[in-house]
Each structure stands twice: as C-alpha cells, then as structure tokens.
Amino acid sequence: MNLLEKLDAAAALRKAQLPEGLGAFGIPIEETLSATEARIGGRTVLMLGTNNYLGLSFADECRQAAHLAIDQEGTGTTGSRMANGNYLGHRALESEFAAFYNCRSCIVFTTGFQANLGTISGLVGQGDVVLIDGDAHASIYDGCVLSGADIIRFRHNDAADLEKRLRRLGGRCQNTLIIVEGIYSMLGDQAPLADIVQLKNTYGATLLIDEAHSLGVLGETGQGLVEMTGLLKEVDFITGTFSKSLCGIGGYCVSNHAQLEQLRYVSHSYIFTASPSPATIASTRAALNLLKNGCFLRERLWKNAHRLYSSLGKSGYKLGPQPGPIVAVILNSPQQALMLWNALMEQGIYVNLVLPPAAPAGSSLIRCSISAAHTPEQIDRVCSVFADLYPLTLQ
Amino acid sequence: MPEITQAQIAEMLCEQLASFAENEMVISAETNLITQLAIDSVKLLNLVMEIEDYFDISVPLNTLVDVLTVQDLANLIYKIKSASK
What we know:
The structure holds 2 protein chains of 2 kinds.
Chain A: H1 3-17, E1 31-32, E2 37-40, E3 43-47, H2 60-73, H3 88-100, E4 105-109, H4 112-123, E5 129-133, H5 138-147, E6 150-154, H6 159-169, E7 176-181, H7 193-203, E8 206-210, H8 225-228, E9 237-241, E10 251-255, H9 263-266, H10 268-271, H11 278-292, H12 295-315, E11 326-331, H13 334-346, E12 349-350, E13 352-354, E14 364-369, H14 376-389
Parallel strand pairs in A: 3-12, 5-6, 5-7, 7-8, 8-9
Antiparallel strand pairs in A: 1-2, 2-3, 4-10, 9-10, 11-14, 13-14
Chain B: H1 6-16, H2 41-55, H3 70-83
C-alpha cells in the first residue's frame, strides 16, 4: 500500500464508521453575528461550542487595540521571535503575563499547541520521563513524543494511580515531569491538583499544568486552577492559550524557575516559526486586562454553566463528572451522537460533535461550551431543546 | 535473572487479551495485535496501563513502536522486567 492508498483506506474506514457524519466536522460559519450567534446554512444559529468562555470576541477594547496595532505595525511580523519578529508588544505581553501570575518570567508562543510542544520538548529529553494524564490533550502527547522522553500515562484524574507509577520509577522521579490540565477539554472536569502537588513533592518530580481551558474561568482573577486551589507556588510550569477566554491565538508558559528563559534557545516551536501578529498581541493584552478584572464575567459564566448542567442532568442525560464551562453529554455510540448533533442543528443550536478516538474512553460526546455572553434566555432555550430531544437518545 | 520466562509472559498475555478476540479465535504468540485483534491506538494505550499494573513495571509508550504481535509485547515486558531486577 503506497502513501496515498493508506490515506484512502483511512478515509474509507471513517466513512464506514459514520456515512452521514462527515458534514458535522468543519461546517462553514458564514457570518459571525455576535459572541453567541452566527449564520450557518443561511440561518441564525446559537453558538454553544466556541470556547469563548468570557464572551470577549467582540469586546470594544480588544477590537480597538487590534485595529490600532495593524495601522501602526502592519498585519504580520514576518519573522521569528529570535530574529525580526520580536516587537515591544511581545515583550510587554510576556511581562504582563508574568505579573498576572506573580511569576519570574513568561514566554509567549505563536499558538497554544506550540506552547505545549515547545515547553515539554524543551524541558525533557531522552532518558527523562513524562507522566501524563490518560485524557491529556494532543498537544501534550505530541510534545512528549517530540521530546524523546519515556512517556507513561496514569489513569485520568486518579492520584492513587499516579502514585503507583511514580513509585515504580524510583530514582528516575527527579527526572520526571508530571503533566495535568486545569480543566480537561473533553469532559470538562478539573485535575485533583492538591493530591498531585503532594505526590510531586513527595517523589521529587516536576509539575506542569496546562490551564488552556481554565484561564479566565477559575480563580478570583482568572489565573486558573492554580489560583482556585491556592497552589500557584507549588506548580513549576504553567502553560495556556490565548485562543479561548482571551479570544485571540497564541500561547504562553510562565514559571518562577530562572531556567525558563533557556527554552527560548531550545524550543523549535518558538524559534522556527513567525511570531504572533501585532493585532493578536494587542487584542490579547487588552483581553488579559479584561480577564483579570472580570469577576462579573466569571459569575455569569458559572451561573450559565450550573444552569445548563443541572437542567441536562434532570432531563436524563449522562454528563461529564462536574459542572463547568464545558458540559459534555455522553452518548452510547457515534451514530447516537450524530443524531443528536443533527437534531440540535435543526433547532438552531451549534455544539461540538466529538467521536472516538478524540473522545475519552471510547465514548461519543456532544460537547457544549458555555459563555458569559449567553443570556439566561438563550440558556433556557438550549435546556428546553435538549429536554425535548432526550427521547432520541433512547433509540 | 527474572523469575518468569518470555513464553510464560506470552501465555499470560494470551489470557489477558481474550476479551479482544472475536468468535472462536484462538490467541497465540504470533497473533497480530492490530490486524487480528483490532486493538486501535486508544485500546492499546489502555491495555498498556493494565499490563503495567499486572507485571508491576513501567512500559513507556515510546517503546511500543516495534510491537506488532503478542510475542513482541511479551519480549518487551521480559526486557523491562529483566532490567528492573
């Protein structure tokens, strides 16, 4: 089988799994009307699958900052941070992120995916060990593979299972990087950080937490799970993204370790790529300011999240383990998930369809993501439509 | 030297993998994990955690690249167990 035939075989398998399902992925969004509505297929659709947790995608401050940056600095930097792509704005955003976390330093990457790739592959290498949660994001897996370190998984959110694996490593623990996430992207549950920190300290390992989905969502100022649990100083490295609560694109790593700066010289995903555009940096700086002062946004977000989680549970749906900005509806099969996805679209509600192997433990998910910008009326409408569609899941 | 042989490990694996076999299929050391038992990447990752617990060893995912058959997996486990003695 040659290279192209292998792709044909993979495509045939996917089509056989779900003949009618391919349209659900990458559906074109014809017009974005607001932080919560878009036009799809000629109709206005309520967006419940965007990761726009704080609803800042149309914030005046962010748009004005982006416009000004384009006018003053152009549309792109056309170069790497290590060459001509290192503007004052990039440095300023790093300083602002470091101050936000009260950490020594920060490195800004061009995407959140690249932040994990560059940080992980820069921190560990051949002979080292990475201990990752079983539900870790693909960027974490890929960073681990790129690093050449030994990759060991522990059962999702199971600190006892993590300890078992640390114990087996013995003296190698001092060269072990444990990686967890503040909020897991598919099921929306939070890492048991206090237990994990305790194990990290007991076994002398290093801890990295990815706050991609928890930045802006957890903690009084929105730092993430580290702030909510009061464990910021116990975590060695924090990565995250600008593409969710901050409504931009890019990523970061912050740390109190002086050695973080060395990553600039070893992380290929930092060195060999163009830096974020001036508009992205400017809107992210404005959004970070709104995020840290956005207690009222977090209150609205959590109110919406609790309302939806509680209502779907009462309707009979099987849900992810805990309420949060990601509410995952767990279905029995890809066919059932697709049926529900189609029915929701017919009712003018867009959600994310997640099928194996992207969904954990072979499950199929309808993944809802909630925004502070959703009105109570919009959430009520979603709850009502889900309740009406519940019988579909019994077929 | 480890107390267990490669053949014994392969035998234990055949028993453990029985749940993946369809119909009357008999699993042997030569059985291919992917083409015959249809163990995809996600199932393999979960299987590795079970194997780690069963044999009380660490099996890094990056060591699985050359594992195709039950025997390959048995050889890898034997190697790791031997090194940990």
